[in-house]
TrEMBL record, chain B:
Keyword Signal attached: no
Location, primary (coarse class): membrane
Localization terms from the record: Cell membrane
Protein name (database record): Cobalamin biosynthesis protein CbiM
Domain of life per record: Bacteria
Membrane topology: Multi-pass membrane protein
Phylogenetic placement of the source organism: Bacteria, Pseudomonadati, Aquificota, Aquificia, Aquificales
Protein source organism: Persephonella atlantica
Transmembrane segments: 12-28, 40-60, 72-94, 106-125, 137-163, 183-206
Amino acid sequence: MMEKIKGLLYICGIFTFTFFHNIYLYILLIFFLFVLSGKEFIPIVKKTLFSITIFSSVVTASYVFINGFDWQYITLVNVRVFGITFMTFLFIKRVNLFKLFSFSENLMFIIVLSYSQILTFQKYLTDFRFALKSRTILKPDFSDRYNFFKRIVEFFMKSSLDRSKEINMAMKSRGFYTDE
Amino acid sequence: MHIPDGFLSPKTYIPAYVIASGLWIYGIKKMKKELEDKTVPFLSVMAAFSFVISLIMVPIPGGSSGHAVGIGLLSVIFGYWTAFIVLSVVFFLQAVMFGDGGITTFPVNAVIMGFVGGITSYYVYRFLRKINNTFALFLAGYMGLLISAFFTAVVLGIQPYIAHNKDGNPLFFPFDLSITVPAVLVPHLFIGIGEGILTVVGWNIYRRIYDGKD
């Protein structure tokens, strides 16, 4: 129940940031979110800045270049972007996403399984990159890079199709599906 | 192409959620009908596949490389409904877990890249495969990404018209269509090559694994 209340508050926060266009209100809300983040303040700020910097900088720089320095617009948009992104990361830290979607068993399984598979695949990809790096002294040429790309796609496609069958059988054997 | 939160107005993301919800309900029903109890594991693992594919740099002739999303590949192999649902799961996880995209832009990304991109790839391949299969696959991937990029540019470009203050100053994304369309489309003319290559390579690998031919 608590997860659902937090979810509702998060949606209200999104609406506040997008329906109202008041910089002072945003700053107040962000200050409140900072307080709520407690010890996780710095990691969440870092993650937020990492996530928004490129897109926001390009938009801001282009806007200044085309329209001149309109501090009100630049502050409004950047504070809003920062606020929503910070709030999203804080929400993810504070809420068990899997519990939030527990109202639908299928949805919960999809999120849990996808997330765990993504983490596994990410690790494999890192290993593949290290493997290529450790085996090449000079920058790989086009054919080497193309072969590397082809093998990776083949590995992940084969793994995905095999795992899909394995997980299905594992779920079946554990009684996740009831026969009609 | 992922738009972060804060650049799209409620006039955009609320209707996008309504449209996406309808498509998700229909798409999942369609998938369940075809895959039955295989839906959950298949969807989850293909979402992970699509996610990891988007992290791989596709080598492009000329010494460069670009990121692909897998729109064309998923669509030509599994159909556009599956591609849409799989990519929706990916975009959701990217937005909430990995900070790529946003929760207000998630339905827009899902509908544009997952559905519009998927349907484009699917029909481009259907229409052209009799002429030349490899060319059809390449163009399916290329066009899927390019059309998605075009609609993304349109969604961004209409923000100043639909969300502005009394003085006419923008409240969300500031640039109109005359800027967003070329700014988004031109780089994607190049990035689309990576998507096209991935579709051709992925399709051939899929056939080799499952049909025993190349």
